[in-house]
Amino acid sequence: YQELLDRESERVGLSTGFPTIDKMIGGGLRRKYCTVIVARMKSAKTYFKGLVSLHNSQKEIPVLYLDTEMDKKSQTSRLISHLAKVDINTIETGQFGTYKNNIYQQQKTK
């Protein structure tokens, strides 16, 4: 029992990248468990799943990402938007170059 208390700071499962959520689910995503994310429609469940996948893939942990509702283009646009810190509408309308130039021009005038 004391050994378990001493290991309190060790992560039990795979990190989600969100320490508060890791703690809420008992130390991260665990092997041989099915962690279900449930929330209302349009409450960023898919976005959260993408960020968890991204967090782990950046640590070179293999990730299998399945989604039966959103198409590949929408998923990719969301992740690129997050990584580039650019509004998703700018990505989806193909105006990234224009956006980049506008930001550059704004910085020059300051």
Task: Give your account of this protein's structure.
With 110 residues, the protein is mostly helical. The chain is 52% helix and 0% strand. The protein has helices at residues 2-6, 19-24, 45-58, 72-84, 88-92, 96-109. The chain starts with a helix and ends with a helix. 2% of the residues are buried.
List key phrases describing it:
110 residues, 6 helices
**pLDDT averaged over residues:** 79
Proportion in β-strands: under 5%
Largest beta-sheet details:
none
Q: Count the helices. How many? A: 6
Terminal CA distance reads: 61 Å
Could you tell me the number of beta strands? 0
Query: Which structural class fits the helix and strand makeup?
Result: mainly alpha
* Helix content, binned percent: 40-55%
- Overall body shape: elongated
Offer a concise description of the structure:
By secondary structure, the chain is mostly helical.
Topology overview:
Blueprint: H1 2-6, H2 19-24, H3 45-58, H4 72-84, H5 88-92, H6 96-109
